[in-house]
Amino acid sequence: MGCYDCCMRCLGGVPYCSLVATLLCFSGIALFCGCGHQALTETERLIETYFARNLQDYITLAYIIQYFQYVIYGLASFFFLYCIVLLAEGFYTTSVAKQTFGEFRSTMCGRCLSSSFIVLTYVLAVLWLLVFAFSALPVYFFYNMDATCHTIDVLTETPASINQLCVDARQYGLLPWNAVPGKACGMTLSTVCKTREYQMTYDLYIAAFAGAGITLLALLTYTVSTTYNFAVLRYLGRKGIGARC
After folding, report:
1. What pTM was computed for the model?
2. What 3-state DSSP class applies to 167?
3. Average pLDDT over residues 164-179
């Protein structure tokens, strides 16, 4: 076998669909976990500086933020390992398909593993859809806050109207109802929106939301590729070249 034929045979065994899904998953999880972790830290700082004066008013929020940050660490580790496993499974199945009559053989264990990956990936995609929807909530909050600040900038010539424009963190469940002040109004709110911390936190949440969407796309791609891999293994088993382990 020549060098060209050998290279073409190796490239033919690459599971391109799984490879693309792995790259999407890595980039999406990196965006979601990295930006989400930093955005939570900046959110706590904004709440502490502009919306709450007493530590007891936001101590529960601080604990929740810390809990979610630990969850982010776990998600990053889990998806890194799971994507590697799915990519390896894609390489195995592609080798079986490309070398049907070679030394690679479709086994009962291989078909069972492929069906397990289909179910697990589908469940993860459904669960991640909820995470994707949940990650839109802080973007919605900051979008409303930014729209209110824009309205304040337009109405700078009428101070009486400006003072009636507020963003109340208590309405979003971020603070208890007895928190003081719990909200920012008028020029105070406009000042908050012009700070570097606010702009960076808003951008981080948008990036985390985009990362969640990319990860969801990767999981859907994995679902398609694992289903195809399972179909290939079943076909090879019916052709009589499968070996039981």
Report:
1. 0.84
2. strand
3. 86
